[in-house]
């Protein structure tokens, strides 16, 4: 089937909910850093934006706007100890099995099999949608997040928007 | 999320974005994007479908290792097993009232 046109759908949805008009980011080019190691030597982290938090911490605001919260996800915590709070996608399956959105167990298996070097000490959940103050993302939140990845010795980040 | 990937890449760490929103990702242009035409929330497939979850994860890793050009978006040749639509969410009066206050 044809991909869903989310830009049109979300403009309509947000408009109907009284949101200000959303100006979508549009970039003509992309930055680039080469992966210089083989995957079997890479430390890999994942970042997901779907309102996933550990059950012992405060849930995400399911209707968040301009929420720059980013939680560390401990890869050693069982994947069924997480909760999902986000009103803007259907997380029925992810509620049953986190791996269909954030494949923590699958990545660990690939590390155990030697296909990647290691799972990073922390995965990440945050940067929920409806962020209108994008200069804060670009100037503060994302650089601070990148510093954490550097501190963890991450060689590759898998980013999973939801 | 694509914006965050771009900043991380600029910091010197390669990124690969696995997206279910093709048009949004095409606009934002992360360094490396893999599009999976599955419902949002099911980026790596169905619950408990470990084979599919591993397959897509491996595709993402392989793409990260082989991509040579910034801004490329690759369509994974996978079909969801039934037609799906945009998830309209829980636009309850309470949710709308909360948003109007923000």
Structure notes:
Chain A is of the alpha/beta class and 162 residues long. Chain A has helices spanning 6-16, 92-96, 104-112, 134-151; strands at residues 43-48, 52-54, 70-73, 82-84, 118-119, 123-126, 156-160. Chain A has one domain. In chain A, the strands form two sheets. In chain A, strands 1, 3, 5, 6 and 7 form a five-stranded mixed sheet that branches. In chain A, strands 2-4 form a two-stranded antiparallel ribbon. The two termini of chain A are 20 Å apart. Chain B has 102 residues and is α/β, with parallel strands linked by helices. Helices cover 42% and strands 13% of the residues of chain B. Chain B starts with a helix and ends with a helix. The chains are: A alpha/beta (162), B alpha/beta (102). At the A-B interface, helix 1, helix 2, helix 3, helix 4 and strand 7 of A face helix 1, strand 1, helix 2, helix 3 and helix 4 of B. Strand 7 of chain A pairs parallel with strand 1 of chain B, so a sheet runs across the interface.
Tally of individual helices of chain B: 4
Number of helices of chain A: 4
Low-confidence stretches of chain B: none
Strand order of the largest sheet of chain B: 1-2-3
Tell me the total number of β-strands of chain B: 3
String of helices and strands of chain B: HEHEHEH
| Main sheet attributes: strand count, strand direction, barrel closure of chain A | 5 strands, mixed
Secondary structure category of chain A: alpha/beta
Strand segment count of chain A? 7
Helices and strands, with pairings:
The complex is a heterodimer of chains A (162) and B (102).
Chain A: H1 6-16, E1 43-48, E2 52-54, E3 70-73, E4 82-84, H2 92-96, H3 104-112, E5 118-119, E6 123-126, H4 134-151, E7 156-160
Parallel strand pairs in A: 1-5, 1-6, 1-7
Antiparallel strand pairs in A: 2-4, 3-6
Chain B: H1 2-11, E1 15-19, H2 22-28, E2 32-35, H3 50-66, E3 72-75, H4 93-101
Parallel strand pairs in B: 1-2, 2-3
């Amino acid at each position: 089937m044809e991909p869903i046109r989310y830009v049109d759908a979300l403009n309509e949805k947000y408009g109907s909910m009284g949101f200000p008009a959303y100006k979508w980011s549009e970039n003509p080019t992309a930055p680039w850093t080469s992966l210089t190691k083989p995957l079997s030597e890479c430390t890999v982290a994942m970042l997901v934006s779907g309102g996933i938090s550990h059950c012992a911490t405060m849930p995400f605001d399911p209707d968040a706007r301009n929420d720059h919260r980013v939680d560390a996800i401990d890869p050693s915590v069982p994947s069924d100890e997480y909760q999902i709070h986000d009103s803007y996608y259907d997380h029925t399956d992810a509620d049953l099995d986190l791996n269909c959105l954030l494949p923590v167990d699958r990545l660990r298996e690939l590390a155990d099999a030697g296909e990647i070097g290691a799972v990073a000490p922390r995965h990440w959940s945050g940067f929920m949608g409806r962020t209108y103050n994008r200069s804060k993302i670009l100037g503060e939140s994302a650089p601070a997040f990148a510093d954490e990845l550097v501190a963890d010795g991450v060689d590759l980040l898998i980013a999973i928007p939801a | 999320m694509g914006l965050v990937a771009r900043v991380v890449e600029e910091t010197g760490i390669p990124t690969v974005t696995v997206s279910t929103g093709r048009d949004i990702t095409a606009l934002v242009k992360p360094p490396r994007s893999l599009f999976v035409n599955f419902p949002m929330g099911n980026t790596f497939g169905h619950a408990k479908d470990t084979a599919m979850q591993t397959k897509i994860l491996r595709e993402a890793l392989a793409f990260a290792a082989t991509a040579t050009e910034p801004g490329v978006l690759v369509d994974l040749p996978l079909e969801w097993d039934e037609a799906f639509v945009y998830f309209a969410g829980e636009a309850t009066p309470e949710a709308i009232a909360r948003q109007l206050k923000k």
